[in-house]
Write a structure and sequence with these properties.
- The protein has one helix at 10-69, and strands at residues 83-84, 92-93.
- With 100 residues, it is mainly alpha-helical.
- It has a two-stranded antiparallel sheet with strand order 1-2.
- A hairpin with a 7-residue loop joins strand 1 and strand 2 (92-93).
- The longest helix has 60 residues, at 10-69.
Length: 100
């Protein structure tokens, strides 16, 4: 049994080409937009991390200046709620309360 083979005419073929080109352009635009959003998201998260790190560094400098200005003995830094790690060491730490 033979099936009749219908050939595409010129108008149907051009509609197919236009539709495919339009889909390709829309797909390219969508990929470009998603790439832009990804880059922007990365930049924002990077800036937020930088700002948080800067606040922590400033707090550390402020705490160090407070420790130095308190008149503490440089040989015994375990004052003003700081705790020494042991004898013969200049390493101290401060335990902060957990605020949740």
């Amino acid at each position: 049994m033979k099936f009749p083979c219908k050939t595409l005419n010129r108008q149907e073929a051009s509609a197919l080409v236009v539709t495919m080109a339009l889909c390709w352009i829309l797909g390219f635009m969508m990929i470009s937009y998603l790439s832009l959003i990804d880059t922007q998201n990365f930049s924002v998260s990077r800036a937020q991390a930088w700002n948080k790190a800067l606040v922590v560094a400033e707090a550390g400098v402020e705490e160090a200046m407070s420790q130095l200005n308190s008149g503490a003995n440089p040989n015994n830094l375990a004052v003003n709620s700081w705790t020494s790690l042991g004898t013969n060491t200049a390493t101290v730490f401060k335990t902060l309360p957990f605020t949740g």
